[in-house]
Design a protein that fits this description.
binds FE2/S2 (inorganic) cluster, 102 residues, four-stranded antiparallel sheet, 10 strands, Rieske Iron-sulfur Protein
Length: 102
């Protein structure tokens, strides 16, 4: 099991919202989709675009720089299947959101 790091209050990320957080030298995007939270690396595997600033449709985020699409639930790259993005387990305890980094 990895380290649990508190990244935000539950009220900080409304449904449909996202927050960029730094955890152990990583920059993550934490999304809230209809009350379910997902954390992925914020950095696109193409040329480093900020995925947390991308357009979100369901569980698909589109990189704002050149349009690569990722499934934020699985990390699957829908544009280049060999370039998955890292995903991280998210836990809610009381009013806080924690991300697990292994
Ligand atoms: S940097 Fe994300 S698609 Fe190019």
């Amino acid at each position: 099991m990895g380290n649990l790091t508190r990244v935000a209050d539950v009220s900080d990320i409304a449904p449909g919202g996202v927050r960029i957080v730094k955890v152990e030298r990583k920059t993550l995007a934490v999304f809230n989709i209809d009350g379910t939270l997902y954390a992925i690396d914020n950095t696109c595997r193409h040329r480093g675009g900020p995925l947390g600033e991308g357009k979100l449709e369901g569980t698909t985020v589109t990189c704002p720089w050149h349009g690569w699409k990722y499934n934020i639930s699985t990390g699957e790259n829908l544009t280049k299947p060999d370039k998955k993005i890292a995903t991280y387990p998210v836990t809610v305890k009381e009013d806080s959101i924690f991300v697990e980094i292994s």
